[in-house]
Amino acid sequence: MPEDDKKEQGTFVVNQSHIDPSTDSRTQLTLAKYELIYAIIGQVLGLVCIVGGLGLFLNGIVGSTNWTTKIFGAESTMTDAAPGAILFVVGLFLVWVTRYKFSHKKAN
Fold this sequence. Notes:
Layout: H1 3-8, E1 10-14, E2 17-19, H2 25-58, E3 65-71, E4 74-81, H3 83-97, E5 102-106
Antiparallel strand pairs: 1-2, 1-5, 3-4
Helix pairs in contact: 2-3
């Protein structure tokens, strides 16, 4: 099979969602559009959390918050953290999780 034919048989990937190349192009565009909307909303909420956390931290809002969580085998522990620091970390997590991922991969 020539190399050029293999390039045309890629898989359309949006945020870890594999879409068969034979899927209607309008359906693929609609799925990509909604993935972009999801990513934008997540990025905005993450930015609000980051800015809010910075605001709380810089204004000297104090408190004692303990946080222990396990996600996907990774463990996170924060002891005696200010509320601003917790909100900042939540914002970073939201930004990281909801980023827009777009790529084409070859079909298996």
